[in-house]
Design goal:
Elements: E1 2-5, H1 12-16, E2 24-29, E3 71-75, E4 81-85, E5 112-117, H2 125-146, E6 155-157, H3 158-163, H4 184-197, E7 203-204, H5 217-226, H6 231-245, H7 254-260, H8 264-273, H9 294-306, H10 314-325, H11 329-336, H12 341-353, H13 360-377, E8 392-399, H14 402-414, E9 420-424, E10 427-435, H15 438-450, E11 456-458, E12 463-465, E13 484-487, E14 508-514, E15 517-522, E16 525-531, E17 535-537
Parallel strand pairs: 1-4, 1-7, 2-5, 2-6, 3-5
Antiparallel strand pairs: 3-4, 8-10, 8-11, 9-10, 9-12, 13-14, 13-17, 14-15, 15-16
Length: about 550
């Protein structure tokens, strides 16, 4: 298997960040006569080839749909069959749809990794044999990594998932495999046979960010951790440093090794000894960040001399790098509040490192390096114990008008969140998850807020109602003309104006209702127009 990682970081599925415990694998095929990986994976990393239509899946909603899989198998620009991982294996994908058992029990929500095999015209036996074998090797690798049994129902195709009630009604891959004398039983047998050989290690085509221990990566991580940066920030910063220098503090830019006739070690010793006096002005990239410009190299040299350290000393370079970063106000600001590896990586790339090539492909690759460090070193909090029987509901919006709840539901879904509408009394709430552990509810609420939604957590649920359905029967007492009402504390006028403090303690008559606009007052005199949802029936 030729495995390359190019995560679809702009896809809403990736942005949702929802994790799962891997339990199974679902095999898909694309249903389109296009074997090129570039149709679905992007941007071009030099291996894929270009997509002239820019309709790959590295965008929020490909084709207006919430879809994303963990990997694709197909042809690169040279026609070679390979695998591209597009989501972390432990992230929930959007690939199965829902079957007869409903969304809660579909493959997406029950730990299935999903990957697509790029279809051609379905008659090329040579192409089929290659992608079939690549898929076998991928499944063997995943089975070994996650302890998955290569049996039904833990290794299935989409059509088998539909039969089991955990996927939508698609025919893949059984519309294709039998044309070449194969089916899922032969596929599972091939996976078992490969596992028996013990040969399941993929051959990566893009180096993973896993430098040897001699690079001091643990020391670098701890240094920035002690400076107060969060895991996203540290990973994004380290991904860039790895791209620049391999995290080697004595790294001399490769082209200058040849032109100067010195190795990394020889150059470092010569600068330390003073026998090479052109360090400041030679324009050679050097060290963790590949400092190149004369003024930055001059400052680095001065800093190390004052510290009485070697120019290539890791601890000294880290201290200098941190000092230098303080002069990049926006970079530091973003790093201190980073909410993703990609966000941190991009700001370091564009504002601090500023290489000549700042293309999307470079951004993606550096973020991938950073993600490697995040996966390796990020803090893994101990899961708190849930309170038996207690559920925490994450909600965004409470409405007395069902149509308003429907509208909020659509907005939430458009941002990639799973949601339902629940009714409690005369109120409709948009709910985005129910959790037995409070910390998990807090995490989901934080994601909603980051996406621009006001949110709150409650232990009060309600009864689920269908989106767009007619509201369930409401209690007999509803707000109508003539009702006695109070205004909720802190509420505004209908147009957003402030109300006098005494208003919240006074019982008013409802004088007029127009949609969600209600006019209240006393003894025939109008006090204000407010929103229906801001009134409490007395």
């Amino acid at each position: 298997m030729k495995l390359t990682t190019l995560l679809l970081t702009q896809n809403n599925c990736y942005k949702s960040g929802k994790k799962h415990t891997v339990k199974g694998i679902m095999v898909h095929s694309t249903g389109a006569n296009n074997p090129k990986l570039s149709r679905y994976v992007g941007p071009d990393d030099g291996i894929l080839g270009t997509n002239p239509y820019n309709n790959h899946w590295n965008q929020p909603m490909p084709g207006g749909r919430n879809i994303c899989v963990h990997a694709f198998i197909g042809k690169d620009k040279n026609g070679e069959v390979r695998t591209y991982q597009t989501l972390p294996w432990d992230m929930v994908g959007w690939h199965s749809g829902s079957g007869s058992l409903g969304a809660a029990k579909n493959a997406n929500n029950n730990g299935y990794i999903g990957f697509e095999i790029c279809e051609d015209g379905l008659i090329d036996r040579a192409y089929f044999d290659k992608v079939y074998q690549e898929a076998v090797e991928l499944c063997a690798y995943l089975c070994k990594t996650y302890g998955i049994k290569p049996d039904k129902p833990t290794l299935i195709c989409h059509s088998e998932g539909h039969q089991l009630g955990i996927a939508s009604n698609h025919g893949d891959v059984m519309h294709w495999f039998p044309k070449h004398g194969k089916n899922m039983d032969t596929f599972r047998a091939a996976v078992k046979a490969l596992l028996a050989t013990g040969s399941t290690t993929p051959s990566p085509t893009v180096p993973a960010p896993t430098p040897t221990a001699t690079t001091g990566e643990e020391k670098i991580w701890k240094f920035f951790k002690d400076k107060g940066l969060n895991d996203f920030a540290i990973a994004g910063l380290m991904g860039n440093l790895y791209a620049e220098s391999g995290l080697r503090s004595n790294n001399l830019q490769n082209t200058y090794e040849k032109s100067l006739g010195m190795t990394d070690e020889q150059y470092t010793k010569a600068v330390d000894a003073g026998t090479y006096a052109n360090f400041v002005n030679d324009s050679a990239g050097y060290g963790l960040a590949q400092w190149t410009y004369w003024s930055r190299k001059e400052a680095l040299l001065k800093f190390t001399k004052e510290a009485k350290a070697s120019i290539g000393d890791l601890d000294t370079q880290l201290a200098y790098l941190w000092k230098e970063l303080q002069g990049y106000a926006n970079t530091i600001k973003v790093l201190k509040s980073a909410t993703s590896v990609r966000q941190a990586s991009d700001v370091v790339l564009l504002e601090y490192e500023r290489p000549a090539d700042q293309s999307e492909a470079v951004k993606v690759k550096r973020a991938q390096y950073g993600q490697g460090y995040y996966d390796k070193y990020a803090s893994k909090p101990v899961a708190p114990q849930p309170t038996p029987g207690q559920l925490y509901y994450v909600q965004t919006g409470a409405y007395s008008v069902k149509a308003n709840a429907d509208a909020q539901y659509q907005k939430v879904k458009a941002k990639g969140f799973d949601a339902i509408i629940k009714q409690s009394g005369n109120i409709y709430r948009v709910q985005v998850g129910a959790y037995s552990v409070k910390a998990n509810a807090d995490a989901q609420a934080a994601k909603l807020r980051a996406a621009g939604f006001e949110t709150y957590i409650t232990t009060t649920g309600g009864t689920q109602v269908a989106v767009g359905a007619a509201p369930a029967a409401t209690p007999a007492k509803t707000i109508k003309v003539g009702s006695k009402v109070k205004v909720k504390a802190g509420a505004k006028t209908y147009t957003g104006g402030n109300l006098a403090s005494f208003v919240y303690n006074t019982v008013y008559d409802v004088q007029q209702i127009n949609g969600d606009r209600v006019v209240i007052g006393l003894k025939g005199q109008v006090t204000a127009a407010v929103k229906l949802s801001d009134l409490i029936l007395q």
